Every structure is written in C-alpha cells, then in structure tokens.
Amino acid sequence: MRFQLDDAIDLLKRTPTVLRGMLTGLPEEWAVSNYGEGTFSPFDVVGHLIHGERTDWIPRARIILEQGEQRPFEPFDRYAMFEAGKGKTMLQLLDTFAMIRAENVIVLQRMKLTAAKLALCGKHPALGCVTMEQLLATWAAHDLNHIAQVAKALAFQYAEAVGPWREYLSILRPPVARFV
C-alpha cells in the first residue's frame, strides 16, 4: 500500500482512544503483566509511546526539515519508560499519552508536508538515510506494533486458562525475539 499522510494522521489520532478502550479499568495485575522475559507489559508500552512522542517522531521530523542529513538523529532509548513510569498509574499514562499525541498531530499537520518534503532525508544512527515519509509510516506502524503487544500481553493472562484451545490461538505463541 502506498503511504498516504492523511491516513497515517488518522491512525495516529486513533491510537490513544484504542489504548484507553483496551486498558482503562483493568486490574493493575493485567496492566503490569507481560508475555515472557524481555517483553513489555501494557504499562510499559504506554510509557514507551509517551517517550517516543517526546523524543522521537516530531523531533526527528524537525531535524529532517531543518537540517536534513547534516545532523544525525539522537539514538532512541527504548527503555526510558521504566524510570519515567515509576509512581504513575495507567490512567495517568493514558492521559499523558493522549495529550502529547494530540499536540504532536497538530504540529505534524502544521508542517504542511508536500511530496517534496516527504522525500527529504534524515540520518538515522543505525539505518542511515531515511525519508520523512518512511519516518511517518514507521510512526503509524509502530503504534500498531505496540497495540498488538498490548493485546498479546493481555491474552497471555489467560494462556493456561484456555486449555487445549491454546494451539488455535496464535496470539498465545511465545515471543520469538525481543521487542522493537
């Protein structure tokens, strides 16, 4: 499928609502449980998304627009949420994520990205040249990846309770690799 900025923005707007629907009111045990060693819990995922909103997507888009490949992106700390989330509730994280995401979507829309701007490159520390379009497509796909992680972590809470049906539920297969 070809990237469409308006579709990506629509998806980015929906993510806070989807996560709020999945996670609000669940017992804390569900919010902090993961699906195996080295995996994120729903609480971790929301914290990770907040960190990305603050330090990754819009800051990198600005670098692409203002400095291109001249200034490499700062490396992203995929684990910063462990410290930042201490003492917070799931509801606080969901509220923070929704607020920051709404602000970032407005910033993104104000960039008035044209086809020429979507083709501009920035320099990723590991991947090299990446375009604005690739950055924004990754932002949207990253959201979906983490929504799936949340669903998997929640499903794993009934991994034993489903009994023999487990073999029919692909969501209950153990993780193959560490999270991204």
Verbal overview:
The protein has 180 residues and is mostly helical. The protein has one domain (5-172): Up-down Bundle (Four Helix Bundle (Hemerythrin (Met), subunit A)). Helices cover 57% and strands 4% of the residues. The chain contains eight helices and two strands, in the order αααααααββα. It has helices at residues 5-23, 28-32, 42-55, 57-67, 81-84, 90-110, 115-118, 132-155; strands at residues 121-124, 128-131. The chain has a two-stranded antiparallel ribbon with strand order 1-2. β1 and β2 (128-131) form a beta hairpin. α1 runs antiparallel to α6 (90-110) and α1 (5-23) runs parallel beside α8. It is elongated and about 55 Å long. The relative contact order is 0.19.
Task: Give a short summary of the structure.
With 180 residues, this protein is mainly alpha-helical. The protein is built from eight helices and two strands; from the N terminus they run αααααααββα. It has a two-stranded antiparallel ribbon.
